[in-house]
């Protein structure tokens, strides 16, 4: 079995950004994604009230080039204005052609 090396981009953000972020990553080259509700505590503290909204965890497996485009877009348009965290991991996948 052949494994293909790609990048897993994980974005944790305010749920209100869900639609916008999904459209952004697709526009930048992602062919798919996984999205789940997320909870936790970070530099902005713990969200304890419903009125503060919920968080999402958006994951996509992409080429390094697409990963860099996604991170650059987040840096430009989201990090300064929203509670958004993003990180990239190296992954090896089966059927790599599904992702690039």
Automatic annotation (TrEMBL):
Gene Ontology molecular function, alphabetical: enzyme regulator activity
Originating organism: Thermus filiformis
UniProt name for this protein: Nitrogen regulatory protein P-II
An example Gene Ontology biological process: regulation of nitrogen utilization
Leader peptide range in chain numbering: none
């Amino acid at each position: 079995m052949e494994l293909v090396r790609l990048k897993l981009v994980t974005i944790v953000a305010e749920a209100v950004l869900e639609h916008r972020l999904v459209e952004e990553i697709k526009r930048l080259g992602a062919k798919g994604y996984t999205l789940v509700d997320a909870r936790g505590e970070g530099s902005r503290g713990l969200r304890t009230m419903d009125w503060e909204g919920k968080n999402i965890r958006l994951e996509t497996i992409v080429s390094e080039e697409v990963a860099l485009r996604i991170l650059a877009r987040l840096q430009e348009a989201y990090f300064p204005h929203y509670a958004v965290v993003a990180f990239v991991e190296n992954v090896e996948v089966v059927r790599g052609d599904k992702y690039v």
